[in-house]
Every structure is written in C-alpha cells, then in structure tokens.
From TrEMBL, chains A, B:
The keyword Secreted does not apply. The keyword Transmembrane helix does not apply. This is Alpha-glucuronidase. Residues 428-668 form the Glycosyl hydrolase family 67 C-terminal domain. Keywords: Hydrolase. Gene3D superfamilies: Alpha-glucuronidase, C-terminal domain (3.90.1330.10), Chitobiase/beta-hexosaminidase domain 2-like (3.30.379.10), Glycosidases (3.20.20.80). Residues 116-427 form the Glycosyl hydrolase family 67 catalytic domain. It comes from the Bacteria. InterPro entries: A-glucoronidase_C_sf, GH, Glyco_hydro_67_C, Glyco_hydro_67_cat, Hex-like_dom2. Pfam families: Glyco_hydro_67C, Glyco_hydro_67M.
Amino acid sequence: MKTLLLPILFLGATLGLRAEDGHRLWLRPHATTPVTVVAPTTSSALLATAKRELQQGWQGSAGTTVTLTLKKDKAIKYDGFRLNAQGVQASTERGILYGVFELLRRQQTGQAPAAGLSNPSYEHRLLNHWDNPDGSVERGYAGPSIFWRKDSALVVTSRDKTLWQEYARANASIGINGSVLNNVNASPLILSAEYLGRVKAIADVLRPYGVKAYLSVKFSSPVLLGGLKTADPLDPAVIKWWRGKAKEIYQQVPDFGGFLVKASSEGQPGPQDYGRTHADGANMLADVLKPHGGLVMWRAFVYSPSDKDRAKQAYNEFVPLDGKFRDNVIIQVKNGPVDFQPREPFSPLFGALKKTAVMPEFQITQEYLGHAIDLAYLAPLWEECLQSDTYQAGPGSTVARCTDGSVYRQAHSAMAGVSNVGLDTNWTGHDFAQANWYAFGRLAWNSNIKSAQIAEEWLKQTFQNAAGTNQPATSAADWNAKFLTPVTQLMLASREAIVDYSMPLGLHHIMSATHGHYGPGPWWAPPGMRADWTPPYYHQAATNGVGFGRTKTGSDAVSQYHEPLASQFNNPATCPDAYLLWFHHLPWDFKMKSGRTLWDELALHYDHGVQQVRQFQRTWDQAQPYVDAERFGVMQNKLRTQSGNAVVWKDACLLYFQQFSRMPIPAAVEPPMHTLEALIANDTPPRPPRQP
Amino acid sequence: MKTLLLPILFLGATLGLRAEDGHRLWLRPHATTPVTVVAPTTSSALLATAKRELQQGWQGSAGTTVTLTLKKDKAIKYDGFRLNAQGVQASTERGILYGVFELLRRQQTGQAPAAGLSNPSYEHRLLNHWDNPDGSVERGYAGPSIFWRKDSALVVTSRDKTLWQEYARANASIGINGSVLNNVNASPLILSAEYLGRVKAIADVLRPYGVKAYLSVKFSSPVLLGGLKTADPLDPAVIKWWRGKAKEIYQQVPDFGGFLVKASSEGQPGPQDYGRTHADGANMLADVLKPHGGLVMWRAFVYSPSDKDRAKQAYNEFVPLDGKFRDNVIIQVKNGPVDFQPREPFSPLFGALKKTAVMPEFQITQEYLGHAIDLAYLAPLWEECLQSDTYQAGPGSTVARCTDGSVYRQAHSAMAGVSNVGLDTNWTGHDFAQANWYAFGRLAWNSNIKSAQIAEEWLKQTFQNAAGTNQPATSAADWNAKFLTPVTQLMLASREAIVDYSMPLGLHHIMSATHGHYGPGPWWAPPGMRADWTPPYYHQAATNGVGFGRTKTGSDAVSQYHEPLASQFNNPATCPDAYLLWFHHLPWDFKMKSGRTLWDELALHYDHGVQQVRQFQRTWDQAQPYVDAERFGVMQNKLRTQSGNAVVWKDACLLYFQQFSRMPIPAAVEPPMHTLEALIANDTPPRPPRQP
C-alpha cells in the first residue's frame, strides 16, 4: 500500500494541491505567466534547473524573454550575478541560478526588478547537519534526519530523492551552496564504503541545485574504521589511510566539498591525543584534500573541564597557531565564546586570527532558544554578531569584514549554520523556524541585509495568499497593515523576548540539561558533573552578587578583546547592560544606568520577556484572518506553550536568585505562579549528557 | 525513642516554646495577668476547664476577681450566657465556659469588655468528620484522621488524648458542642464493641470541653454487623438490634449525641431498599434514641443517576414527607441544591419544609475550593446562604431564620460543618483554612456576625505578635494598616476570586474528578460514567450556548423557589449574574447587563480571578514584616501554587468553551499559556470515583 500511495501524494504536491502544511516553505505555488528562456547550453543540469524555475515561477509580463548569459566578469565575485534588462549574467552556472531566484523573489515580494550586481559576502555558504547515521539528529527538533535512516537502511528510495531535491531547491533559492551531511560528533561509519554510496546518491541530487556535499569526520577514523594502531596526524600510515579515503570519496563525488572536524573537544579525539597541535591535525587533512580541491573546516569549539574560564579557551589555544594553517583550512568559530547562548558577545577569535581563514558558525536549530516550540527569529542575533566591531584592524573591523576577506587576506571564506531541518512535514518543526533557515542563507549571501528586510521577504513568500483566507481579495495595503507590519515586529522582537525571560543582562548557560536545554536550570549541578557544564559555574550567584567576573581582576577574558572594547567591557559603568553579568560579578544592589538596583532591573527584564510573549499571542490572534487555519492553529498553540515556558523561566530564575539576593520581587513584576520546589522537582533527576 | 521524645515535645508546646507552626490555632500563648476565679463548685470538669482557661489566658487588670454564676434565666437560650461586671452567668456549665472564652476573646482582640446577653443561634453546633476507621479522611487535605488509625490500632495513647483535648478546647473556644466522629459514608465497623471502646475514650476527652460525641451509621448495619437478613426499618428484629446497639453506646457514652445518616444516596443503603420512606427510616432510629435523649440527623443529599436535573431531587423527595418526621429528627440539608460548589443558590428545601426540623450543612473542608492549597475564606459563602431570603413565610424568611426556630417551630435546631481537621501540625493543612473552622463555629453561634468581623477576630488572635517579627514594638495602628486591613480584604475577596477563575456566572460542577475536584475538567466524562457525575451534564456547552436550563420551559427547578424568586430566576433579564448559567442556557452572544456578550463577560470573569490571586500574592508579600518566617513562607508558596492553578482554570475553561463559542478571547484577557491538548493530557485517564 505504501509504495502505491506515495506517488499519488507527491503528485498532489507537484500540482500545488498540498494544504498549507508548511512543506513548500517560502516557495509556495502561485499564479504564473508564460516566459521564454534563452540559455547558453541545454546540457547543463544547473542551467536546466534555472530554466525550469523561471518557467514554473515567472510572474512578470507574459511573453517576456529572459536570457541567461554565462560570461567572465571581473566584477562578479564567486557565484555572483548581474541582473539586467535581458536577464541574468554570471561567471558560473550557480551564479545564473541565484540570479534567477533573485528575479523570482523580487516578483514574489513585489519589489521592482532591479538591474545591478549581486555578489555573495562569503564564498561557501554551508548548512551543518548534526545528523547521525542512525537517523537521529543532535539538537534536532523537527524529526529524524532527511539523509539517514534509523534502521541504517542505505537503499535510496524515490521518496528520499524527492525530499533531497526539495531540500536542495530551497537551499539554492537562498544561495546556500554546501551541506555537511552528518554530525560534527561524527561516527567513523560515515566513511565506510556503504555510507559513501549513499553520500554519492545525495550529492547527485544536490548537484543540479549547486549544493556541494561535505562530511564531518572523526579524527580517529583511521583507528576505528581503518584498523590502524594510531591516528597520529604525522604518522605516514595515517596519512596514507586518509589519502586513500579521500580518493575513494572523490571517485564517488567528484565535486566533494571537504571535511568538517570537531577535534579534541568534548571528548572527541584529536591531534592533541598524540601530542600534536590543531594545526598539525588540520594541515594533514588539508594536504590530503588539496589535490582534489577540498577544504578543511576545523572547529575552534574547544575547552577543558578544568580551566577557570571556558570562554577564554578557544582564543588561548588558537591565537598562538595563527599563520600555521594551510590555505585550504578554515577555522570555524561559533559566534560567541561559549555556546550559542541567546546572547553572547562575539568570540574574541574574530579579528584576532589575522593570518588564518576564519568562518563564523551560527546555530539555526534552536538549542538554547526554545527548540521548535518557542518563536525565535534569529536574524537579529546573527546581525548583531556580524556587525560587531572587533577593532582588531581599526574601527570598522566588524566580525563580518574580518571573516569575508575584506580585512584580512583569506584564500577561502565561508559561513556555516547548524541546520534545523528534519523529516517533519514543515521541515523545521516550527513554521517560523523556516525563517531562520531562510535568513541564514540570505545573510550568508549578503551580511549587510537587515533582519527586518529578511523577515518581510520571508513573510510575503510564506504567508501571502494563504489558502482559505480572503486573500488575494484583501488589498495589499490592508495585508501590510494588519499582517506584515505587526508580524514582522513580532519576529524582530522575538529573540530579545527570549533573552529577557531566560538570560537577561548577560546571564548565560543557566538552562537545565534535563530537558535538553529547553527550560531553566540555574540550580542544575548533578553530583560529579564537570563544573563547566553546570549553570552555577556561569552565574556565580551568591549573597555577595551574581555574574561571572571576567574583568582584569577576574578571569581577564576582557583582555582578549581589542581596545576600546577591553576597557569598555572591564568597567561596569561603561559595559553595555546586555553583557553586564557576562563580564561582571556585581552586588545585587548595584546601581544600574536606569537608577534601579541590579535585582530590580533583572526582575523587570524577566517580567518584560513574559509580557512580550503575551503581546506576540495577541498579535498572532489578530492576524488570524490572514493565515490559513492549519498554520494559524499550530502557531497559536506553540505561542501558548511558549507563554507558559516564559513564566517558568521567570519564576525559576527569580525564585532561585532571590535565595541569594534576599530582596523582594518588585510589585510591578507579576508574582510567581510556581514554587521553586515544584520547579526543581519537575526538573527530574538529571542524567549526565551524552559522553564519548 | 519515640515515646521518650514525645513528652518533651509536648512540654515545649505547653510552655509556649513551640514555633509558629500553626498548631496553636487562634489560641496562641500570650502574656497574662493574675486573676481570681470564684466558681460555684469545684467538682465539675467543665467548670474546672473554664477556671483554668481564665487563669491561663487573663489579660485584664491584674488581681481582678471573676465570678462564674450558674443560674436559671429565661432570657438565656441553650448554652447562652451573660457577661456582667462580676463575670459570667449562665444556665448551663457549657454556657459558663463559652462566656469565659468570649471574655478572653474580647481581651485578645482589643474589644471593650461588654456586658450583655449572648445566645447561640443554633442549639447544636456540630462538626462532621468524614473520617474512616482506617484513618483516611474523605475529602481531607490535612493528613489522616485525628480519631482513627491506619493500622486500626484501637489502643488510646497519651498523644491521642493530648490531641483530642487540644481539638476539644479549640471547639469550645468558638462554641462548637458536638462532633460526628466518622464519615457519612459509614463503615458498619464503627458500631462494633471494639470501636465503641475508642468512641468512649474520645467522648471522655471531649466532655470537659462541652463537646458531645455523635456517630454516622450505615443503615444496613443490622445486616453487615448484626448478621440479620434485613435492615428493613419496620422489621422488629431490626428495631431490636438498633435498640440493643443504642443501649450499648449509651452505657459507654451516657451523653452520646446521636446518629448522622446518609441513606439511599450515592450507593449507600437506606430504607428505600426495603420499600420504606426516608421518614420510616429516620423515625425508627429516632424512636430507638429517644429514651436516651439522642438525635437523628438525616441527610437530604439524595439524587438518582437517571433524573434529568439532580438539583431538583432532594426537594422532590423530602417535601412530600414534611410533617412526617419525629421531633428528634433533623433533616440535614447542604447549603445548595447540588454539592458544595463555589457558588450555588440556596437549596429550595430551606423554608419549604415547614413542619420538619431542618439544619444547614456547610463544607468547611475545601473539596471544590482548592483543597488545602488555595486560600478560600468561606464565611462569605456561608453568610450569603444564611442571609438568603427564601420568602417561604414572607419577606425576611432567611435560610438562617428558617432553620433556627425563628420562623417554624423546631424541637431542635442545629448547624453542621464538614470538618477540615487532620493530623497535620497546623490541623487544617493550610494556615488560612483554620479561619474556616473558626468562622463556622462563630456563625453557628451567631448567624448574624459579619464575615469581616470574624476575619478580623481570627487574624488578630492568629497573627498578632508573631514570633520573629518586630511586634509588639510596632504600633497597633501600624499593624492594623499594614497587616490587618489588607489581609482582611484578601480573605474577604478570596472566595469570589475562586468563583471567578473556576465557575463564574453560575457555572458549577465543571471540575475534573481525576485530581479529586481540584482542577478544571469541563471535558471530564469517562466512558460509562453516570452523566450527573460529569461536567457536560452541568455546563451543557454547545454551539448554541452554555448553561443548565432550569427555567419553566427547562427542568423547571425555578418553581421550587417561592415567589418572587421563581419569577426573578426564571427571567434572564432579572436573574442575578451570579446564578445566570445555573438557571439558564443562553447563547454565547447573549447581551449581559454590562452590555458585553456572555462570552466576553465570562472571559473577563476568568481573567479577573487570575488577577485577583496575583493581588493576593502582592498583599501577602507586603505583609511579610508582620508574619513569622514559617507561616509567611508556607503561605507565599501556597499562593504561588494557587496562582498557577487559577491560570490553569482560566485557560482550560476558556479554551474548552471557545470550541463552542467560536468567539475570540477578548484582548483585555491574558492570553492562555496552556494548550487545551496539554491540559486534557495532564488530566490523566480518569478513574471512576469510589463506588459503594
């Protein structure tokens, strides 16, 4: 029955008969007009894709002729393109495809067809999938992997291919040109011949959409998979094993992108196990891939359980290695120095590595921002990081400019986002989480686009003319006023609301691990757990105050930042409120810029977060006439659950910290509706996180 | 160890060293002055109690002589008393004791020593304990029974006696003169020789405090305990068995008060099992007890699973029997026609039985008002019922006057309250639930005292000069302004807040039975459950409206009320909002007196309830300086939990009813923070309630 039913289901999807279940993402079907496409060749699969997209999506004047022109042009960088009166011009076939999608996007979002050049900020725009060979997804909240199956079935079905194609098309539409197909906590299995067969099948489906396949590799694969006695990167047998493996991969996937490596981190093996440096390890793999044109993305996410300040360690380990990496190595650095928190200052490695290619890693999946339950539009978080000025090469040395080749020479540039995609019908588990996939692609293409523009683009493509609503009868002005504007505002405020109700004023890492980092856990510290995995390590709450002292008289993490930031962060009077408790341990009655005590300010922030979510609920409720019943109801329920979660966060943190502050909760704050005892009891006996 | 430790603990208690754990109730120790007591005799245990209380509690001028005078006086009713310059005068020893407690109460609460007469409204002022021989308490939220033990141990310990004495003293201090020692769902065991031995022990401890012992009896005891073939009340063998049993009881307890009977109700056996009437059954037992001076309290709480309106049945069954009961039978009628809901109109039996003694039954234990978690001061509920005008003998025929002998001749009058007492240190599980025990006693003594006065009396005795606070340094004016006034207001508003967040506008019986009637369950209707035990039977929510139609065109329950009430209730324009959905099934857009739709009004009531609890929290937080740390913290946590419960009620009911109303929740209402799905899922698979 199953095999008989599937083709029918997918036929429905192809004809646009599918309900508004979110599966079509921002590429929902719409009325089109005929277009003539002139392409330079008919043999290219990529150009065929471009042509098909134009024909299936054209909304311009009927009978227009669009010419696709492949032509070298010094002004066009990487896969950039030019739009002109004739159509699209580019240096690469990918560039043509991206130009076509830009044309269609402008039509769909009601923008004038602009002539001009569009170059990507980054050469490589990558999704990192934390997908395991058993089909599970680490920090995945949208169902199992789209690439791997629980039963380790490696046979490729037509359903697999359809899904991969839809996935590749979505990526192409926003300029994403690479996918790391498996978890950074990598299984050695991925490099086995059997799994490489499936990698080839995936790569074959992604290729016509310009998406390259990459793999995460386990550094000890030569031992675990190859049967060698060592994985020492300087050992000739090890090098030989990797060379053979690379050759095997490139035979299957000629345009294979390269390796992503998490080494010597959180129990993962690495070169340090053999007395070698990160440079020794990365360079060995880089040398192996070099003849094939492959890249090594080497993660800087390293810290030891014994160090006094986890936030300092990546900097301490990697800065001394600056200049020692091959030019096809890129150091992949998380946006902040700890771990994808709702808010962190930028990682001090940005701009500090001056002779090494560095790429930002963002987390699209909402590990610390409400999973697929809470609404968190993340573009503002990423924009905040990318536009942060490091001052490392003078004012204006933003994180974006320090990583895209503008400030330092980089043979390659890239941006990575940890994907939020899974087998759920709507791909991301949460309809609005699709906006984060979209925004990541758009920002990787152009790190200067504003979050608001991205949100509007996405909302228009994702919700305009939703089935069952009175659109398109509704006027555009009405839709803009009653849906687009308020919902854009909701999206733009959503991340700050989460910061407020979970970790305001620079607090960080105070979630419980019991519920997979969803809820609060300032108390969370199971016996024997390494301290730097527990919230008390980060909040340092005591009767004398709260916050992590990272000033010059503390851990001195401030000194990893270039002046004037080091001095600014070091002084509580000049440190931005948003980072205050990140850098300072301050007494509860510390007088804030507002004139309030730190305790009152903290309580008001928590309460404001709660009230914000309630406003989001009202905004969404009022948007009901403009949304299909299916997505309206799902989102309404998710916002309700988020509203409850916000209160749990507020109550848990205020009641926990109040034990130390011994100050009353201000009367303006909504009184707790949970007891600390019940909240801790609900945070069931913690199990230690996955160990290597 | 245990037996060694106990006497020490109780010594501490005796000396007033006990912390503010609530065990001393409203009888907390305080500084006293010497007093000389002149008593008419030294051989009376009751007078000895009175003398001891005066000596242990006197706060008047040092060296005063108080004379206790036993003297017949036609103006003194029952156990009433006169206070005069010399002391206390009464017709009975109990009257002396009550006068002494009144003297001491006036001293403690700062009232002038008033001369004058004080007569009780009711002759018998009774607590009904729903305690089972296995130590459990039906609808008890304060631990196991103080009378019976889980292991059926019938041996009486000195700890038992101390506790019973403390219990008796508390009752005496507020005029309660009888206790039914076991559950109305009675075990036949209670009449066995073994259990009667313990009944005697209890009665012996209660007697010096003027508290008589009563028992609930199972109507089929002659079969279950006596081994007879029948319990037919007209069967001579049955009558003989009861006569023998009565004799046995009175040999052990010469002042035994009588029987409480729940017959032919909710599966309990009764005279109807043998084709006899309630009158046949009650009169047989009344005849048996008459020679000993005992009473029969026969409950009118009867309803069949098949009737169309449970609210009408007690009236239908008992009104035809009016005048057929012996004069030592009292029909015990719950305040409302259904079952102790947060709000009901008064039972139409009040005033309708004109030739039969009737007594009101109130529920002190908070079965439907938040157990021992939520704060519900119940005096306003009881006051509302007692002051309701039945019009049955013209205007002014209040429930109080129809039951205390003022309107109809009654050989005996009584009021019963289902006790909230258990083994918990503070007796009632919730510090403020003590106020309900207190208020019940005070209202049974004088049904005209205002709820506010009772609250103030109780607060003064219970919280003034709390340990660890800055009292008595604080001025009385300050204490009144910062503690007494706001906390009295809190208490007075507490029951209406519960009505608002659980069952406003006349809704009733829409709680879930899964959590023992604590939380909401408008959906609660397990397969096979008798309809009149499920909320949909009561709320009748549908797309066409909500509410139980009890008008003349509906079940016609309105006609059980005397005019002008019948007409007033029958017309939605004149029916008070508070009873609207009790009597009417109305469309969701019905226009209320406020001009709002029924749906909006309902939603605003639910929200108001939630906001009220948050105000209670703020009031309590601000009262912190005036409360000992122990009771402050416990209450603060309970209010937090109540606050969460209020939101659960609001969300559950609004989301459930919204399925039918299909109207938006008004923007002024706090948006839900739970989903209906989660709320129903949390209401775990219901188990059928206890069956006979």
